[in-house]
Amino acid sequence: MAEQFDVVVIGGGPGGYVAAIRAAQLGLKTACVEKRGALGGTCLNVGCIPSKALLHSSEIYEEVKEHGKAHGITATGLKVDVKTMLSHKNDVVKNLTQGIEGLFKKNKVTYYKGHGIILGKGEVAVKPVDGKGTPESIKTKNVIIATGSDVVHLPNVPIDEKRIVSSTGALDLPEVPKSMIVIGAGVIGLEMGSVWRRLGAEVTVVEFMDHITPGQDMEVSRQFQKILEKQGMKFKLATKVTGAKSDGKSVTLTAEPKDGGKAETLKADVVLVAIGRKPYTDNLGLKEAGVAVDERGRIQVDAHFETNVKGIYAIGDVIPGPMLAHKAEEDGVACAEIIAGQKGHVNYNLVPGVIYTNPEVAAIGKTEEALKKEGRAYNVGKFPFLANSRARATGKTDGFVKILADQKTDEVLGVHIIGAQAGTIIAEVAVAMEFKASAEDIARTCHSHPDLNEAVKEAALAVAKRPIHI
Fold it and tell me: I need a labelling partner for 235 at 20 to 30 A (CA). Which of 97, 253, 346, 394 fits?
């Protein structure tokens, strides 16, 4: 007889494993089905975490190579050992995935390794990933779909994960390529391009739009591009890639202006395809179960994460909203609490987004372009890190903090940061904005000195045109 659960989560990524743990904490008998063989999903295994390990390793190398002398540090025989770098990255991933298994045991979450398929209301089959053996049936009162997302492929650019790679392959290049072309100037492309540029590759980014980081505040986007160009990254904007051929040693791309014009060829040792991600819903039994999806393949849910089929829920990258690990985690917590009869909720207007380059870029809330489109009156306060004492002491003076506040109420509507540790700094304003803080509230909050966060205080003061240090 099949085991009976209150909740079965399909997918063990950031949304799925967090949903499973929270459901178990609430007293629900919970299981999680994951086919990868390791928990943590794309983020932990081949995404956010390993990329951050490589970003940090490459930053250490570049810091010593390019800036050590200014700090009285001279290094001889400095070289990159890619094998050791990748080994460190893999160790980080392994330890964290094992840590999640430990959390499952601690919270009494049953872990099934296999491919989860919805057989209908109240039943999930766990199919062995290798296709051998008989699928195991699980009975459940509720199902949470948390299968995440997959790489978007580009027509006529076949990914082989050797010369033409996705973000997964870019994390495991056995050596530093002499040249790399990145297709897509979004988060993944710029982060991974930054890694290999620091280690010695000549990197060119090809972007379909006429600016980098689509969706970002335009002032930040323009400044970000200037900084990356100063670091050595090259850009070809408003350009459409039409094809790619690999001879096993290099790749030749064909490209043309997106609005029409003369075609050209580009050549590199490695090409990274980073044009976005799409919901992963293959072979889940959604159609058979009657679960509705939209034209982009996203599962449709109501305000309580429930699909059109009662008892079947969905969270994270498979539903509309930002495709971010922390958003998926919040979805997972809220969904589990709703199933348990509580009032879970996620404020999608206040999900911070971060690009972990050097400098980092972080944003939350509205951009200037969005506010103008809405016809909303606002004030702007900006403060450069060049005028921040901690930034001057560390030599990290690129960028600024920009605060957008309602002209009448002074409520903070958006904050955009480009600079060192922007991803950490943004948390301060995330809390403030969740509590409907005004720029004046932030300006009158005592900040530690000397610290980078003082730039937030000064930007808040600048909203009222009274910054102290500029």
Answer: 394
Question: What does the pLDDT look like over 337-360, one tens digit per residue?
Answer: 999 999 999 999 999 999 999 999
pTM beyond 0.85, yes or no: yes
Determine contact, residues 100/196, Cβ cutoff 8 Å. Answer: no
Q: How far apart are CA 429 and CA 431, in angstroms?
A: 5
pLDDT of residue 251: 98
Among 388, 393, 462, 392, smallest CA distance to 425 is for 388
Tell me which of 67, 153, 345, 449 is the catalytic residue. 449
Give the Cα separation of 63 and 82 in Å (integer). 17
Tell me how long the chain is.
470
Query: What are the tens digits of pLDDT across the range 116-168?
Result: 999 987 999 999 988 888 899 999 999 999 999 999 999 999 999 999 999 99
Compute the distance between CA of residue 257 and CA of residue 259 in angstroms, rounded to an integer: 5
Distance CA(21)–CA(34), nearest Å, equals 14
Query: Cα separation of 376 and 136, whole Å?
Result: 55
> Which are the contacts of 60, defined by CB distance < 8 A and separation ≥ 6?
none
DSSP label at residue 70: G
Sign of CA dihedral 131, 160, 317, 436: positive
88 has catalytic annotation: no
Task: With beta carbons less than 8 A apart as the criterion, state whether 462 and 409 touch.
Answer: no
Q: Mutual orientation of helices 325-339 and 14-25 as an angle, nearest 10°?
A: 30
Return d(Cα 272, Cα 188) in angstroms, integer: 10
- Alpha carbons 418 and 357: distance in angstroms, whole number: 10
Strands (E), 29-114: 30-34, 110-113
Cβ atoms of 455 and 388 within 8 Å: the answer is yes
CB-based contacts of 81, cutoff 8 Å, min separation 6: none
Mapping DSSP to helix (H, G, I), strand (E, B) and coil, where does residue 69 land? helix
